[in-house]
Write a structure and sequence with these properties.
Mean pLDDT is about 75; it is low at about 1-10 and about 70-120. The chain is globular and about 55 Å long. By secondary structure, it is α+β, with helices and mostly antiparallel strands. It contains eight helices and eleven strands. Strand 4 and strand 5 (about 210-215) form a beta hairpin. Helix 2 (about 30-35) packs across helix 3.
Length: about 350
C-alpha cells in the first residue's frame, strides 16, 4: 500500500490545501489560519504538512516563496506532435507509402484517443458505480469512507439560507472517523449564524464505541453516544450517512438517483427524495415537506454535500435551505499519533 490512500485529486493540491497555501503565502501563522478557516490547529498543521510533501518543500518559508509552474498542456495535445514530422518527409513513392503507413498508425492512435476523450465527455459509468441504486446509495457511500486501514478526515460546513437572502454559515465541524476502531474525533466551531445553545462556540469531542467525551475549554463531560456507536453527536447530525437507517425506507420509495449530476462543478452522483419533518406553521405544530439531495463524488463516492429545502410558508419566510458541504479525504491510520483518539488528547479529564 502506498503512503496515501486518498483518491487522486485532479490538481496537485486539494481546494482546501490551495486555500491554506494562500494564507501561508500571505504571512499568516497556523493559529491565524485556524481562526480564519474555522478549523483546528491540528487541522492546519496537517494541511501544511501535506502541502510541503506534495510540493517537495522543506518548510513554511519555502511555501511562502513557492510559485506555481506554468500550466501543462493538455494530455492529448502531445498525441498530435507526431504529425509535425510528416511535413519534413520527401514525398516520393517509397516515402509516400511510409508516410501513408505512418498516417494510418497515427490516425488509429487518435481514433482510440478521441474515443477515450468522448467516453469521458459522455461520462461513461466508472466501475465504482456499477450496481449503485437508490436503495444501496447510503451503504456504498459509507463503504467508500471506511476503506481498510484508513481514517476519513472531513471538514463539514453547514449553511442556512432563507428565501433569496444570502446564505450564512452555522458551524464548521472537522472530524476524523476511524470506522474499524468505532471511534471519532471532532472539533466543532460555531459560525456567524451559530453560537447558541444548540451550537457551541467551540467544542472538542471524542467518541469511542458507546461513549462520547467532550471538552469545551472549561468543562469536561461524558455521555452515551446518542445516534450510532463510535460517532460523535455533531458529526452524526452533519453526516447522517455514517449511521445505519439514515434514510427511511419510505423515502427511498420515491427517491431518484442521477449518475451524471454535478455539485459546484464537481462530477457527482445525486440521490434525491421528498420527505416530511416535524415543524411549526404559523405557530401550529405540523408536518413540513422537505426535499433532500445527497451528492457524492462520482469517482470516489466520498460525500460532497447534502442540501435540504424545507417549505415553511409562514408569511415571513417561504423556504429554508440547509446545506452541509463535505471536504473529505482518506488518510492512513498509521500516520496519526497513537494517542489521537484518547480523550486526554483534547483536554478531557475525569470528573
Amino acid at each position: 500500500m502506498g503512503k496515501r490512500g486518498r483518491p487522486r485529486h485532479p490538481d496537485v493540491l486539494t481546494p482546501r490545501e490551495w486555500e491554506v497555501l494562500g494564507l501561508v503565502r500571505g504571512g499568516l501563522s497556523n493559529d491565524a489560519i485556524a481562526a480564519r478557516l474555522g478549523i483546528s490547529l491540528d487541522g492546519v498543521k496537517y494541511h501544511v504538512s501535506e502541502i510541503l510533501g506534495k510540493l517537495g518543500l522543506e518548510n513554511r518559508t519555502d511555501a511562502a516563496r513557492w510559485a506555481e509552474e506554468p500550466s501543462r498542456p493538455r494530455a492529448w495535445s502531445g498525441a498530435l506532435a507526431p504529425l509535425a514530422f510528416l511535413r519534413r518527409l520527401p514525398f516520393g513513392w517509397a516515402s509516400g507509402v511510409a508516410a501513408a503507413v505512418a498516417v494510418a498508425a497515427i490516425v488509429a492512435g487518435l481514433t482510440v484517443l478521441i474515443w477515450a476523450v468522448a467516453s469521458e465527455g459522455g461520462r461513461a459509468v466508472p466501475a465504482r458505480l456499477e450496481g449503485l441504486t437508490a436503495e444501496n446509495f447510503a451503504a456504498r457511500v459509507a463503504e467508500a469512507m471506511s476503506a481498510e486501514g484508513m481514517v476519513y478526515h472531513v471538514v463539514s460546513e453547514q449553511y442556512q439560507q432563507f428565501d433569496q437572502r444570502a446564505a450564512a454559515r452555522n458551524s464548521t465541524v472537522e472530524a476524523w472517523i476511524d470506522f474499524a476502531g468505532a471511534r471519532t474525533r471532532e472539533d466543532v466551531r460555531a459560525g456567524p449564524a451559530g453560537s447558541s445553545e444548540d451550537i457551541p462556540e467551540h467544542l472538542m469531542s471524542i467518541a469511542v464505541n458507546d461513549t462520547q467525551y467532550s471538552y469545551d475549554g472549561t468543562e469536561s463531560t461524558s455521555e452515551q453516544t446518542q445516534t450510532c456507536a463510535g460517532v460523535t453527536f455533531y458529526v452524526a447530525i452533519s453526516l447522517p450517512l455514517l449511521c445505519d437507517g439514515a434514510i427511511d425506507e419510505a423515502d427511498l420509495a420515491n427517491a431518484t438517483l442521477d449518475l451524471n449530476a454535478a455539485y459546484e462543478g464537481t462530477p457527482a452522483v445525486a440521490l434525491s427524495f421528498e420527505s416530511e419533518i416535524a415543524g411549526f406553521d404559523n405557530g401550529n405544530e405540523t408536518r413540513l415537506p422537505i426535499n433532500v439531495t445527497y451528492y457524492a463524488h462520482r469517482d470516489t463516492l466520498l460525500p460532497l454535500a447534502r442540501v435540504s429545502e424545507i417549505h415553511v410558508d409562514t408569511g415571513l419566510i417561504r423556504t429554508a435551505v440547509a446545506t452541509d458541504t463535505y471536504g473529505g479525504e482518506l488518510i492512513d491510520r498509521s500516520e496519526l499519533p497513537d494517542s489521537f483518539f484518547d480523550p486526554a488528547a483534547i483536554g478531557y479529564t475525569e470528573g
